[in-house]
Structures are given as C-alpha cells and as structure tokens.
Amino acid sequence: MTSSCNCYELLGVSRSANNAELRKAFRQLSKELHPDTTSLPYENATRQFQSVCEAYDLLSDPVLRANYDISLEKKNNLDSQETEIDARIHEAGQFSKTIGVRRPFSGGELFSLLLLIMSLIFSLVLGLVVGLLKGEDLIFIPSWMTATKFII
User: Fold this and answer.
1) Per-residue CA distances from 99 to 47, 75, 107, 125 (Å)
2) Which fold has domain 7-92?
3) pLDDT digits (tens, 9 = 90+) for 90-134
4) How far apart are CA 29 and CA 41, in angstroms?
C-alpha cells in the first residue's frame, strides 16, 4: 500500500464506518478490481486488488484499526514524523489475513443445505417404504459378496 493512500478513501468509506459497511465496500471493490474479472491490465489490477485487501484487513481488525486511526491523527498533526507513521501503516497491513479464512454460511446457503438433507432423508424413507410394500428383505447381500468355495 502506498504511503499517501488513506485506507478509508481507498475503500470509499467514512472513518466511522462499521464492519458491515466495510465488508460491503470491500466486496464491491473486490468484484470490480479482481485480476480475473476486470478489464484493467493484470499488473495494475493485481496491485489495486492487493491494496484493497490490505486496507480491508487493516480496518476490519479493531486493534489494527485503532492503531491506524492514531497514526492518521499523528500524520495530520505532525508531518515531520511521516516516515515513522508510514512504516507502522505498512507493517500493520503488510499481509492479507483473510485469505483462507472461512466465512459463515449465508441464509440462502443454509436453506439449500436444509433442502438437500430433507430430500436425502425423503429418498431413503421412500426407498424403505417401497421395499417393504413389495415384500423385499431390508438386508440385501450383493452376489459378489457371497462366499463361494473354490476347489483347487
């Protein structure tokens, strides 16, 4: 992330934005800037996407965000200490921590899983009922599992 870049401006949110607003802004920007889906040159898209990820990681962590806010205030008040603040900002947002982290299931995904489980249970019950109505045995041994003796 460049030293002149403000994470709040990069994500397009105010300094008082909550986590839901941050997540919404991040998702929108990540869809626009992802190197696989944008019309920007690959290197430019990669650089911008990485900056957005770093900004989101920094602002979504309460401790890092508090430190970042303090550093922004210092930067606004004391321009002579700009190099120290830039080092702290770069250090705090250097690596993307959200890659590989699982997000919780959405309501639609949970509903889909519920429908899948219900259809599986319904299919099993229906198979058992049809088998019982036909008078079939519930235990079935495949022909390849029957014990046959070979005479040598």
Assistant:
1) 16, 30, 22, 41
2) Helix Hairpins (1.10.287)
3) 655 555 555 556 778 888 999 999 999 999 999 999 988 998 898
4) 16
Note the pTM of the prediction, 2 decimals.
Answer: 0.48
Asked whether 77 and 32 are in contact (CB, 8 A), the reply is: no
pLDDT band at 85 (very low <50, low <70, confident <90, very high): low
Q: Mean pLDDT of all residues in the chain?
A: 79
| Long-range contacts at 66-73 (CB < 8 A, ≥ 24 apart) | 67/92, 68/7, 68/92, 68/93, 69/15, 72/6
> What Cα–Cα distance (Å) separates residue 41 from each residue in 49, 53, 151?
12, 18, 73
pLDDT at 115: 97
Task: Tell me whether residue 115 is exposed, middle or buried, using C-beta atoms within 10 angstroms of its C-beta: 0 to 12, 13 to 18, 19 or more.
Answer: exposed
Quote the CA–CA distance of 13 and 20 in Å, as a whole number: 11
Neighbours of 19 (CB within 10 A): 11
Find, among 102, 110, 1, 113, the residue nearest to 59 by Cα: 1
First to last CA, the chain: 77
